[in-house]
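Title: Prediction job returns without error message
Component: structure pipeline
Severity: low
Priority: P3
Assignee: unassigned

Description:
Job completed but the reporter wants confirmation the result is attached to the right record. Sequence as submitted:
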Amino acid sequence: MYRQLDDAKIIETLERLRDRICARFPGSGLGRVSEELLGIAREAAAQVAYLARPNWPVRVGVAVAIVAMFGAVVLALGRIRLQGDVGDWPELVQVIESGVNDVVFLGIAVFFLLTMETRVKRNRALQALHQLRSIAHVVDMHQLTKDPEQLLSDAPPGGPPVRTMSREELSRYLDYCTELLSVTSKIGALYVERFNDPVTLGAVNEIETLTAGLSRKIWQKITMLNA
């Protein structure tokens, strides 16, 4: 049970994080973001279950199409009447080239059909991962205006807005932002837990790189506060 991610545990962790944020900063935008991320996590659990199980309608349709294609080829070959001899070498080469082209095109068509289920699932996974990428940027937007310099120095007239958080509150707020980003990357990792697709894995790696980079920027602020 400790060798793979559990969507139920991620949702439970996010629920506790949501409750902590709403209790510490009631009515805050970050609390609403955590609620939205919780909804995305619940949707991800359903999406991951869909990716893990076979899509039988697609598989049956693909099997029928492949059988029909090979049946048409066999029927066409059965109607060919070979001549007693071939006129010359160029004509023989043309016949062989035509047969090779037909085999290549048939192979491409079979490959296209066999990968249809993966492409359908990939499309749904990428759409969901795009939402995670967007919400990571939303979390980052909430911490951009939280400047530690407002606490470390006196604001000049006409400068930054009046600060409303203490040093401890600001540090906790920024810490919550890093936790939300961490959970966001874990939700993304769920999509490749039981769906082996290189394109989806690349998108998940991009989200992990994005959230790690945003977290580093936030931790620089936290370090300034604790210095």
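Comment from assignee: result matches the submitted record. The chain has eight helices and no strands.
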